[in-house]
Amino acid sequence: MHDYTDALTTVLPDPAGSAQAGASAGEGASPRGRRKLHLGHFAFMRAVVQGLDTRQSWARYMRIEGEHGDRRAVRATIAWVRDEFAAAARRERRHGLARLVQVDLTALKDAPSALPTLEAFLDAHPEWRDSSQAEQWEAFEAKHGKPDVRLQRHARLLTKQLDALHWLEALIAQPPLAGDALGAWLNPALAGHLEKAGIVTVAQLIERINGVGFRWMGAIKAIGRAKAERILDWLADHEASIGLAIGSHVGRPRSALAPAELDAVVRPATALRPLEKFRVPADLDGRHGQFRRPRQDCLLDADNDYAAVLVWLRAKTGLTPAQRKAKTERRLGARGAGQPAAASALRSFPAIPAAPGTPDLEWLNALSHTQRAYRKEAERLLLWAILERGKPLSSLTHEDAQAYQAFLADPPPPGAARAPANAGRRCGARSRRDCRPPPSARRSSSWAVSIASWSTRTT
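^ Integrase, sequence as received from the core. Prediction below:
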């Protein structure tokens, strides 16, 4: 059997200096999308090298690759990590180290098992860690007796492998970041399924999960609840480096969320938000809009455009008390029949806390079909006027109306503009972050005129 104890014939080089050498040697020329190694890979491989039971370390660091019971996946992952270790060593021109890290100590037939390894001895007696290896062996022999040649060879090889892993860890281990491609961290099959769904980066994955909630994987082929849970665990483990967190609402179905939890999914902001979550900047609220008449000349009980839109919306045909009651009962049934009546009633129309200076908008949770249709148009026009044109609703001109018609006819693609980007795609709950109402250009144009006229109504 080949003896690898002399594989490391010199002191391991400084990782910082080696990183510079690797860059000059063409390290940056690695294929795009090459998978990266994080600290968990090294922690897991240390358990493998020492011959420990890998179940716990796999569950903690590597479960994203699959379940430990899938022995083929475990073996394939170990082989891939060893290959990556060896490739990194070769890039640093450490060819002896590259051979060393690919040696499977657990496969050596003459590997002793009766006595603890030197590494295990040092774990139990850390006071010897700073001593020379000769002194460590002397202490080991005093405790356990003089080992035979095979034990010494195996122990030296194990020590060198662990030293090599520590050196490689300082050289190539990286934390996952929000902008990283999923293919850099997930196995190719799993990353491929997400990419086919348009989810390419870690940040996009977290946005999808937080935006959709419990059933975020529903429309993604080949990703069921088990794989979804492994992905969530992996993201939670690396939350500190990614800088983005998975919301607490993701762990439970929407019907099981309390009103406050559901309401917190989308925070109020001057951005693409539902009407009740949209915050109009003071300089664009229309209080002094170009076409707004003095307050004493207006028939509306509204001091700004936002309030005028709400008055306009509330003036449309709403639900009768009987319809409201029936709607409440239907919603209670959808949430499940096992809830106490009082608690269910509180959850039927969750209250939306109004920000300081804004009206109570709880009634927006119980609109008629007619009101919901009008709400959609009012919401779109208000967002477009402020986010895209940078103007109050009551200051829109004929030229603005023409621009709005052009926008309705040809909405910009996602990310190309600040106005509603996903127009035309239907969505589910309005609490979803990616919810955008689809436009109907002809109807939207006529209703936009009605909204703008109402906001400055004097007769």
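The two ends are 100 Å apart (CA to CA).
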